Amino acid sequence: MNLALDLAWQGWGRVHPNPLVGAVVLAGGVVVGEGWHAEFGDRHAEPVALDRAGEKARGATLIVTLEPCDHRGKQPPCTDAIVRAGVRRVVAAMADPNPEASGGAARLGSLGLEVQVGAAREAAAAQNAIFLHRFRNQSRPFVALKLATSLDGRIADSAGHSRWISGEPARNYVHWLRAGFDAIGVGGRTVRLDDPRLSVRGSVTPRVAPRRVIFDAGADLDPKLMLISTARETPTTLVTAPEARADPVDRLTAAGVSVVRAASLEEGLRALRAEGVSSLLVEGGGRLAGALLGSGLVDRYYWVQSPLWLGDRGVPATAGLPSDPIARAERWAVVERRALGGDTLLVLDRR
To answer: According to the 3-state scheme, what is the secondary structure of the chain?
Structure first.
């Protein structure tokens, strides 16, 4: 199953809104076929793996990270391919939450195949957290927060400079990460200080370039800033307060920025979801990060910790976050931890 999960990642940034899926065919304990869902609308992981296995699939075990589909969409049902291949046993990491596609396990079981669902469920669910969120909470996007900090929890030095806290391997990882989200968000202060592009310039070219989202209550943004001046090339949205002055809002609208007026972050996220944004990667700054965390609106945290100290005058990673006693403090679940060159990545999910 670990191999199947690794294979599934090869669809990152290319298969959305479909789930990431990897599959492995085992015959006599030996891998005889591998497959993954590589492109939206293209073949699913199971038939790819079965085709590569050929006749060796007969009587074999199919290991797959998601329950095989039992419906015809852009591709025929995976259950049909499994039955034709003569597979004896199917092991799926988790059930498919999509009511249109689910039912594959039950059908295969009714045809006499041995079916097991639930192996490595937690790992598979973490991998497809964005996909699962669509069925669990349709009111707002899946929100992930990504921050690169110093050892003392600072995202910029005393002058507000953040380039570069993290090293090149970590920055490459962030470009890969961006490719799998519908939108990338930042606060207005970050836009004014850093003038970011928020583009994807890594190993994965996303099937659809992520929308850029700016959270700024006053809408006071210079049209010459990178995100504003390129708004007609890459969709860009401003989430601002209902009382934001008309003049700056009109200037941004004229530059091609779509504007959402919202009385709260939660209302702004609901509006983004209504516009088709099902996943949002927020990359700062500290005030926006603190406000989202304090409102319980962050589902996942990608923390890149770099081995340097920026001191008390550095910009804190989260500002305005309420202080709870240890007994009531939230404890998040660790999804992943690993080195990114000289930096450390820690991925956590809200429980």
So the answer is: CHHHHHHHHHHCCCCCCCCCCEEEEEECCEEEEEEECCCCCCCCHHHHHHHHHHHHHCCCEEEECCCCCCCCCCCCCHHHHHHHHCCCEEEECCCCCCCCCCCHHHHHHHCCCEEEECCCHHHHHHHCHHHHHHHHCCCCCEEEEEEEECCCCEEECCCCCCCCCCCHHHHHHHHHHHCCCCEEEEEHHHHHHHCCCCCCCCCCCCCCCCEEEEECCCCCCCCCCHHHHCCCCCCEEEEECCCCCHHHHHHHHHCCCEEEECCCHHHHHHHHHHCCCCEEEECCCHHHHHHHHHCCCCCEEEEEECCCCCCCCCEECCCCCCCCCHHHCCCCEEEEEEEECCEEEEEEECC
